[in-house]
Amino acid sequence: MQRWPVESSQIASVGYDAANQVLEIEFKRGNAIYHYAQVPPEIHEELMAAKSIGKFFNAEIRDKFQFHKLEEVHASDEAKADEESGDEEEGITPRTAHPDSGFSEV
């Protein structure tokens, strides 16, 4: 899935598969990419248009959609993202999926 960089201190990039309603988020910390299932297109559009992507994520996505951890991001990518971040927003901590399941329940 293609992701687009976003202006956020905690989220590096966001992708969306409209056909399957899967939201993909790459976090700057934690070296992780997560898939969120059954996310309506309106939520993706609002996320991308939000003044604070992190605050929107915390309020409207985190703990509201099933998810699973997709893959690790290289440490050098995380360091680069940390250097480039400059906006202030609430900290984001993705929930940890149970290792035996596909998507975690919220």
Can you offer a commentary on this structure?
By secondary structure, this protein is α+β, with helices and mostly antiparallel strands. The chain has one domain. It contains three helices and five strands, in the order E-E-E-E-H-H-E-H. The chain has helices at 41-49, 53-60, 75-84, and strands at 3-5, 11-17, 22-27, 32-36, 67-72. It has a five-stranded antiparallel β-sheet, with helices on one face. 27% of the residues are buried.
List keywords for this structure.
single chain, 106 residues, alpha+beta, five-stranded antiparallel sheet, 3 helices, 5 strands
Chart the SSEs and their pairings.
Layout: E1 3-5, E2 11-17, E3 22-27, E4 32-36, H1 41-49, H2 53-60, E5 67-72, H3 75-84
Helix pairs in contact: 1-2
